[in-house]
Amino acid sequence: MIENSTAQHPVLRLSNITKRFGKVMANEAVSLDLVCGEVVALLGENGAGKTTLMNILFGQYAADEGFVEVFGTQLPPGSPRAALDAGVGMVHQHFTLAENLSVWENIVLGTLPLFGRSLAARAAKAKIRALSESFKLAVDPNATVSTLTVGERQRVEILKALYRDAKILILDEPTAVLTPQEADGLFATLREAVGRGLSVVFISHKLHEVMAIADRVVVLRHGKLVAERATADTSREELATVMVGGATKAPEFEARSAGPALLTLDRVSTQATASETPLDRVTLNLHAGQITGLAGVSGNGQATLSDLISGLIAPSQGLMTIAEGEISAWSPRAALAKGIARIPEDRHKTGTIADFDLTENAMLETYNSTFAKRGWINWRAARKHADHLIETYDIRCPGADTRIRLLSGGNMQKLVLGRVLENNPLIILANQPVRGLDIGAVNYVHARLGEARTNGAAILLISEDLDEIMKLSDVVHVMSEGRLSPAFARGSIDAAGLGAWMAGDGFEERADHAS
Amino acid sequence: MDILEILLSASFWAAAIRIASPLIFATMGELICERAGVLNLGIEGIMVAGAFAGWIAVWAGLPLWGGVAIAMIAGMGFGALHGVLSVLFGLSQHVVGVGITLLATSLTFYTYRVALPEVSTPPKIEAFKVLEIPLLSDIPIIGQALFAQTPLTYLAFGLTAALAWILYRTPLGLAVRAVGESPASVAAQGLSVAAIRMGAVIFGSGLMAVGGAFLTMSAFDSFFFDMVNGRGWICIALVVFGAWRPGKALLGAILFAAFDAFQIRLQQTGIGVHVPYQIFLMMPYILSILALVLMSRRAEVPAALMVPFNKGER
Amino acid sequence: MRLEPIANPTLTRRVLPPALAIATSFAVAAFLAMIAGGNPFQVFGLIISGAVGSKFAVLETLNRATPLIFTGLAISVAFRAKLWNIGAEAQLYMGAVVTVVLGTGALGLPGWAMVPLLAVLAVIAGGILLLIPALLKTRLGVDEVVTTLLFNFIFLLFVSYLLEGPLKDPMGMGWPKSARLVSEARLPRIVDGLRLHWGFGLALIAAVGIWVVDKFTTLGFEMRAVGQNAHAARFAGIPVNPVILKTALLSGGLAALAGFSEVAGLKGSLTLDLSPGYGYTGIVVAMLALLHPLGVVAAALFVAAIFVGADSMSRAAGVPTYLADIMLASALLLTVLAILITKFRVRRD
Predict the structure, then answer these.
(1) Kindly report the CA angle at A317 between A312 and A321, in degrees rounded to 5?
(2) Which residue in chain C has the smallest CA separation from A344?
(3) Among all residues of chain B, which has the CA nearest to that of A104?
(4) Is residue A420's pLDDT more than 90?
(5) Which chain A residue's Cα is nearest to B192?
């Protein structure tokens, strides 16, 4: 009787959850049950409402309608504390760790009465060590978080939940930042956890992972629950169709022969900084008419390479050549003058100015050349330019005088895209160009990059998504600890092979730098 | 007077510790705020308000410690206002801080004029007296410097030790440090970012006010309009100089006060006659700027200082 | 509590909160006036009549507004670029010092050349004074709030030294006061016989000039971009640090014009009480004007009226004149809150 009840009574029940942001319906009457020892995958493309749903479950948002029940008790809305106390642990997509504190401090934070007299550090560390041993989550409790790799940080996040004896583990896109091998390690940990009676909600948009780890799949689309299947009774093809809601046409990319090298790095290194991994003698050729993919676990120097090509930093050693000309004084403005189109990683913080309107954002890189004479701005021309971009790139907005803050991510990215692609640039730096976009916008951005390739542009595509890299790239490099792998032609290497390079295998141990 | 003679005299070090005491209170107050991620530029005005509140309370008949409590409460009131605007609403900490300073200062001056409409010189109170610690105060030089002070000075030192302990050894301290580094991590662990920051700003502001009260109730025995005279801004520099650590900030305050005590004595020596006195008076401010410049390359500043936290925004 | 941006705020939403903010600060002042034994209606009546009740009062208000327009512009230019210049007081005195050093007989030029030259030199000197903290910010990352604040104390002591030393008026009977400007260095009156000098005209011209720079020039665009998001501005090729330094020169120069205009237009000589905190009040002016250069003129007139009115109210009703400072400080805090509410909805989850 008791056994029966644990098998049938859900440990977690979401009931008719509805959440609106302004006019946008993020979740609409979503209901979901999770039983003990089960892995449920929450599948859906970007913008389908997965993260919102989990934030409601975790109490970070309050639902407009509906409720959350854990072990038969309803949670008060909008209280992460209540969710934590009820045994819900969440691993966010963007880690929530204090970088300058140690691992154990991050884990202990919030677990003791605030006005308690001691942190009981020794006992806490012992418990952390025991947990990391039994769940195969190797990490040093005394290490400062800022010194950890991305994979280790994720382990700390999971340990945070386990330390509180979480019974329900929610992981939001946990593999997005991992190598394929690390992802396998994560799956082993999750199986271990399930074996001990934990239940898991696994949020993803990657079908093969979902099929590999989940017992059951729930599909969200436009905030609505559109399908629920046992993994055994479904297929990747079926899930893909339900997730996207009918056929969407992804652009095709076929192999092409390369043109001349338009941008070359010859054994380029950069200065070490506190926040980014510096480049370590990187040699790279970007050829006309080719997409060069750059794979790697985030934080291994991709951002530095992107900054270098954007003009934000200059090489400290080595040679950088653009269209056969060696570059001297290097700055964002110099990069623009050299005709480099730059799509930055973060369109909110780097690519646009939130409280500037579309006109101003559209002219951000050309305000002093195309749109000004002797320091006076030609607003009429600027406005016309913005209207032109809105039209050509199908930017959905009330008008060119709308503050860009109010646009959706996809429309914001279209503006950035239009701004840089308008003049048929020869060199394009695309750093995570589709991160966070829905499938329509993803296809749009990819198609535009494909067009640029056909027109003879040399494109560097930086992405943490191996599927994207492998689909688009003519050649692929992998970056690890600031070093660059050799180039692999399309089809000459598989995900596992790239994963090994991402983990740092294959790079020859270099002797000390020639100082 | 010889320079060496100055440096070796007990009275010089006693003066240094005395000058340091209000700075220690206010610096610790600012340090708590900044550790929690809030730059509190209301400090100057809050010190003015504290100086006045403590003094007028005693003048009105309260015991000395009652006056300290009143000062603290006044400071906490302004801290609460600062917190509501800068923490709950996430308004610019620069603007809010300057606004609080203007408000606290003008409210204080107004209240003074209303309370004492007819007086030309402010009345005096019976201030805190020196409390010599038996035996310890008999140690040469150090004894008179450290153990022949008023009770408020002892409190300042005790407070610093307590603060260091709380900050690094208790759950509350961990939460305060974490909220200044990464508010998102605090929220994800089920704690309220707003509550912790509010608490820090309110308590820290209370300490600033006690620092002000030291001036009217321990260093002097009366209230003057330009009494605080930029000490608040100096304390902000001291927090940076002390790398946001209570112990280092305490040392910084003493070092700074020693310079101040030294220049006062130097004014009375042969050099003092030839140099305009304004140069000596500038020294504290110039030293503060130098301290900021010297420490500028050190990246110990709390990562989320001046970054408001809005739930649901990434 | 959470803030949610509003896409298209209604007219009510844009107008009502700031209006309520000003009204509330008036209510605070009324309450405090009652505590001091005054009748709030009488107090406000006296403030209004003291500010605009007579030709003399109006002129006094315009004169008082003049330095506030300059410092208000200085602050709004700087704050727009997120350069937190709290040192307008020092820059004001710098402008005054330059005017006095060169305008008391050191230069022998006709008025049409002397006055503009003094103004230009004051602007340059004030700009350079702010350039130091700005350089410390761009080069070393030293927070400019504290440095500019500390500069106020240092510079005021320097002025005190000058007035007791090199610049002391030998005819001043021992008072720390400079000699009077030669007549060629004085700003003429706008209308003969009316006590209003061309400093006020210059302030209006400056406000329009800054508005034009803001709206129609690449420099204005750059300053706004740097203020809104310096990182994105740098990525887009805007030279962020040079823009900050240019902003500093402009802001410091505007504040210095306040000192120039007070000495050359109103006082004719320099004393230590030249400015009753115009540099700090400029912050209130700029914030009330929502950092808009033309708004600064209106805000400066409003603030000046309150001050002038409060002075005469204080004499008549015995309520301390600091009432005006309280009113403006609370107006400052409430206005920044009101502006937030015009743009964001406060949600309780």
Answers:
(1) 70
(2) C235
(3) B174
(4) yes
(5) A81
Tell me, yes or no, if A355 comes closer than 8 A to chain C by beta carbon: yes
pTM exceeds 0.90 for this model: yes
Question: Is C86 contained in some domain?
Answer: yes
Tell me the pLDDT tens digit for each residue of C66-113.
999 999 999 999 999 999 999 999 999 999 999 999 999 888 888 889
Cβ within 8 Å of C, A 28-67? 61-62
Task: From chain C, pick out residues whose CB is under 8 angstroms from the CB of A310.
Answer: 235
- CA quadruple C165, C166, C170, C173: dihedral sign: negative
- Region B178-192: mean pLDDT is 94
Residue B299: strand pairing partners: none
Which pairing describes strands A39-43 and A65-70: parallel, antiparallel, or unpaired? unpaired
What is the predicted pLDDT for the residue at A509? 60
Q: Inspect the interface and report whether the beta carbons of A96 and B188 lie closer than 8 Å.
A: yes
Measured distance CA(A286)–CA(A453) in Å, rounded: 12
Domain assignment present for residue C147? The answer is yes
The domain in which residue C93 lies consists of 66-289
- Amino acid present at A407: L
What is the tens place of the pLDDT at every residue in A274-326? Answer: 778 999 999 999 999 999 999 998 889 999 999 999 999 999 999 999 987 87
Spatial contact of A427 and A290, defined as CB atoms under 8 Å apart: no
Strand duo A458-462 + A427-431: pairing: parallel
The helix/strand/coil state of A476 is strand
Mutate to test the interface with A, among C4, C8, C221, C241 (most CBs of A within 10 A): C221
Mutate to test the interface with B, among C157, C290, C319 (most CBs of B within 10 A): C157
Parts of chain A belonging to CATH 3.40.50.300: 2-244, 248-339+424-515
Question: How many residues in total does chain C contain?
Answer: 349
Rounded CA separation C210/C79 (Å): 14
Does the pLDDT of residue C136 top 90, yes or no?
Answer: yes
Bridge partners (DSSP) of residue A24 are A21
The structural domains of chain B, with segments of one domain joined by +, span 3-295
Measured in whole angstroms, how far is the alpha carbon of residue A260 from the centre of its chain?
32
CATH fold of B3-295, please? ABC transporter involved in vitamin B12 uptake, BtuC (1.10.3470)
Task: Specify if C56 maps to a domain.
Answer: no
Instruction: Label residue C1 by pLDDT band (50, 70, 90).
Output: confident
CB-based burial label for B133 (10 Å; 0-12, 13-18, 19+): middle
Q: Which fold has domain A2-244?
A: Rossmann fold (3.40.50)
Task: Using DSSP bridges, classify how beta strands A427-431 and A261-269 pair: parallel, antiparallel or unpaired.
Answer: unpaired
DSSP-assigned beta bridge partners for residue A294 = A462, A477
What's the CA gap between A64 and A53, in Å, rounded?
12
**A335 and A311 Cβ atoms separated by less than 8 Å:** yes
Cα angle value B137/B141/B146 (rounded, 5°): 50
Q: Specify if C278 maps to a domain.
A: yes
How many residues belong to chain A? 515
Contact B191 A274 (CB under 8 A): no
Chains with 3 or more CB pairs under 8 A to chain B:
A, C
Rounded Cα distance, A451 and A454, in Å: 5
Distance (Å, whole) CA A57 – CA A76:
10
> How many angstroms separate the CA of residue C60 from the nearest CA in chain A?
38
Chain B residue closest in CA terms to C331: B99
User: In this model, does residue A224 exceed pLDDT 60?
Assistant: yes
CATH superfamily label, A248-339+424-515? P-loop containing nucleotide triphosphate hydrolases (3.40.50.300)
C-alpha distance from C90 to closest chain A C-alpha (Å): 31
Residue B276 and residue C320: Cβ atoms within 8 Å?
A: no
ipTM of the complex: 0.92
**Contact, A144 vs A102, CB < 8 A?**
yes
Q: For chain C, what is the domain count?
A: 1
